[in-house]
């Protein structure tokens, strides 16, 4: 005989079916209580309607749930999330946003973006900063800031907008086109200039902006404090609308004054660019110059020490007091010395440093060196062959032409011989005497002209040798008699 199977009672089968349905519904809407175990935290500016058990989704797929919320620093909130293994890996540039669920689901869910594969992977317990999270703006939050003054401002804005599109507004807009066109031209120029002067400038600007934004994101607490301060400033300005309105009325005359200044500044830019190009080498050499000045600064620092400076002042005080008593005398001395220094600066120094052009005898040395060169010759004229006697030496020349030079005090000219005719004499002799003005100061006198012309040579003739010999004997006798006296 075949044993007959026992069939479960219908009530038990119904209970089992109901239990399976409940588990399936719970798994779909809440999630199973096992699995996962990877915890992530996130800092939010606020956590609207996020309760423990809220879904965490990646690309619309449930990957975890919110396990709790707690207050953070300042006005922030921190939510804790438990994620399944299917949510991994998560990267440190992951972003998170609170989004509303469907009408049937109700509440909010966490929309999580896992980040880019090139970014480092986050570990268990990692906290997503507030700069990478966002929350929706609810209607209650928007209307909370609509205070009485804000509502009045909105009403005034809408009223002004309605007046702008009514009446003669189309004709006014048409008339304003000729004024708007230059503004569009300026915008186009700004847009073109924003691309940079060479390839890669815009890319570098975007890269630098990204670095700036990353630095701001790393200082979320300071940024939150800054935004709070800006909010307070905006509210303070709103409470003083009348004062702000009067300031805006004065802005138009200010702009009228600023436009010419902007034009002048625009004309100045080429000079500024040239100046910047010229000063750039000096700026590059400035560190080396400053390095050389460090020893001086060290010495100055030592002098300015609290103990050194009072001692220096105490030692210099008697000399300073004596100098103060000598002030009237110094004033008189400076009054007398000033004309002399002016004469040296304006007259003597330019003359002594000038160069005499006397070809072919030009040395190229200034006048003061020419005077120094003449001193050894003048000293050697009065010396004999051993340098100890006052004898005068004469050089006898030979040739077929006679040259006569009038020597004051001798009564007759000195006659000599030369083999070459005379070319001329420099400087040319003139009978003109410079004016003598004793009442004029030295600094106002005209500087002397050191460039002299060549005068004509005296006529020369063939030498008469007997007469020449007689003249030489007479000259020797006169010199001998003068020596005996």
Tell me what you see in this structure:
With 485 residues, this protein is α/β, with parallel strands linked by helices. The protein has a domain at 12-138. It is built from 12 helices and 10 strands. The mean pLDDT is 76.
User: In percent, how helical is the residue content?
Assistant: 40-55%
**SS content category:** alpha/beta
- Coarse shape: elongated
User: Over all CA atoms, what is the radius of gyration?
Assistant: 53 Å
Overall pLDDT confidence: 76
Quote the distance from N terminus to C terminus: 191 Å
Q: Characterize the biggest β-sheet.
A: 8 strands, mixed
User: What's the total count of β strands?
Assistant: 10
**Count of alpha/pi helices:** 12
Low-confidence stretches: none
Order of helices and strands: HEEEEEEEEHHHHHHHHHHEEH
Content of β-strand: 5-15%
- The main sheet orders its strands as 7-1-4-3-2-6-5-8
Summed up:
The protein has 485 residues and is of the alpha/beta class. The chain is built from 12 helices and 10 strands.
Give short descriptive properties of this protein.
485 residues; alpha/beta; eight-stranded mixed sheet; two-stranded antiparallel ribbon; 12 helices; 10 strands; 51% helix; elongated
SSE arrangement:
Layout: H1 10-29, E1 38-44, E2 55-58, E3 61-71, E4 77-83, E5 95-100, E6 108-113, E7 127-128, E8 133-134, H2 139-144, H3 148-165, H4 169-175, H5 177-194, H6 201-217, H7 220-239, H8 241-303, H9 308-325, H10 327-353, H11 367-381, E9 401-405, E10 414-418, H12 465-484
Parallel strand pairs: 1-7, 2-6, 5-8
Antiparallel strand pairs: 1-4, 2-3, 3-4, 5-6, 9-10
